[in-house]
Structures are given as C-alpha cells and as structure tokens.
Amino acid sequence: MKNLSREIVSRIEEISMPVKIMHVCGSHEHTIMQHGIRSLITKEVEVVAGPGCPVCCVPSVEINECVYLARQGVTITTFGDMLRVPGSNGSLSDAKADGADVRIVYGINNAVEIAEKIEKDVVFMAAGFETTAPTTASEIISEPPENFSILSCHRLIPPALEFLIESGEVNLNALIEPGHVSTIIGTKPYIPFSEKYGIPQVVAGFNPFDVLIAIYMILKQLKEGKAVVQNEYRRVVKEEGNVKAQKLMDEAFYIKDKQWRGFPEIPDSFYEIKAEFSHVNARENFDIEIEEFEDVVTGCICGPILRGVARPEECTLFRKECNPMNPIGACMVSKEGTCNIAYRYGSI
If you average pLDDT over residues 320-326, what whole number do you get? Predict the structure, then answer.
C-alpha cells in the first residue's frame, strides 16, 4: 500500500503545476485530512473544500421553521446531525431541552413509523443532497399517514458548482466530484462545466488512493490541454446514474431557486414538493411564522469556508469558543463539516 501511495505521489510531482482543485464532499475532506494528503503532495497543487456537507448548507431560516413547529407542539424528526445546527433563534436541540418533542431517526421510514404510532402531527426535516432525496421522494408518493408531513431541505450539487465557477470568488481550475451524489445523478450533469468553462473533472471514490488518483488524473488532463469528465469511481458510479431514483425525484419534486448557508439564492438548486403532494408538505400544512434575519453568526466564517475561500484555521473562534462540544457555526456540527474534520485531524 505504501509503495502504491509513493508511486501515485511521485507521478503527481512529475506533472505538478499551480492549480486549485475543489472537492464538494465531506467524505473526501475526511479522507484528505485523516491521511494527510495535502502534506503528501506539492504545495502548488491546492485542494480546497467546497459545500460538501448537506447539514452545513441548510440555512438558518429552515432551522427556524423546524424550531417554530417544534415549539408549537409538532413532533419533529430528523437526522442526529441536524439537532445542533444553529438557527437565529436557537437549535432543535435547544427546543428539545425546553420540552419540545424532537426525535432522532436514521431515515424517513423511521419517521413514518413514529407517525403511525402517535396521534400528534409529525414532521420529518428532510436534509441532504441528491443522495438522500430519492428516499424522501419514495415516501412522498407512497401515501404516508395523514398526520405526517415533510419539510424539504434537499439541495442539488451541480447548480452550486456552477454558481461557484461563475462567481470566480474561489478561482478554481478543476473539480473532484462527489461519489455518493454521482451514484444517483451519474456523470452527465457535470459535462457542461468542462465544455463551457474548460474545467477538468474527476468523479472519485473515498479511499486515499481514489483521491490521489483523481488528483493525478486532473493534472494529466491539464498537462494534455484537456477538459473532460472522467470517472475514477467506475466500480460504483455509472454514466447514467440511478435512473429509477431520478424518476422518483422527478415525480415528487420540482426544482426552484433557494438560498444556501453562506450563499445567496442559487438558481435551480432546491427540491420542493410538487403541488399534487401538498398534503405532505409541511410548509403548506402549517402556518409557519418566522421573522426575516441576517444569516450570519458574529465571528463565524462558515460561509466563506463553504464557498472554499477560507479554511477553519483562519477563524478566530476555531478550537476556542467553537468546538464539537459547543458548535458556534454549522461547519463544526456534523462529522462531514470542514471545521469538525479540521478539529479532529489537525491542520494538515
């Protein structure tokens, strides 16, 4: 294994050049930090983390919606990572501490089971990218119990990538595309970025060899003057993706513009529940009253971190006021968050 790593690193060094590569996957950042990949490769090859954590990308306004419902007596169900993500009026964990019925589930099917057993209204906070959206879509079209609703927080990765490229803020030259998302959407949605912007892309798996090979493949493209989408993760990802899952999402959701944490409104980046399934849409079933606010925590730079223009170590709160036991910003909450990963594996 060590010999293989040395061989890949050696090949990277042979064709290295100044380049900024962005990945958009918490699992990739975990691999990069845990195995010290940034310290293995030459410094002129910069690998930056983008908005790859679905929990981190949920803005305060959607946290506030769930906190409001919880405080109105609605049973809120969601993934464990969502409980401590800060809104402007506290988190779901705070609401739970005050007596609200907030429950951790491992999937939407567990939330449906809860609704079948109790008479209270149950809302599932459905966070995640295209990876988890199909399971939500499946329940939407399966006639769940009358007391069950969904508050969709699902987001699409390709529109966020186009926003980052167009903005020019991060000045990226290439992309390592997420393996999990790509198992659903395939490789085709990334092609326009290479064709329109001349950006090399590689869909990569999650072990350190996958990431190193992806970096080498990108550098090889740049050296040869190419800009295409390559699939390093062929053992899992197919060109067409998961067609059945895509059909489920198309049936249950429509796509709309939406704000992300740390981003302004991104066009066509959000899955909302279609009108024919409005009886399952929590935003239609409840009068959710929340105030307008600025989605910024004083001193926290989670937004720039999610956009790939800052690292956790640049934040004055990092490892001090902000840590996994007391997360000030969303990027410190989830194990897929860039700040949480940097806290656990150090500045490497």
Answer: 93
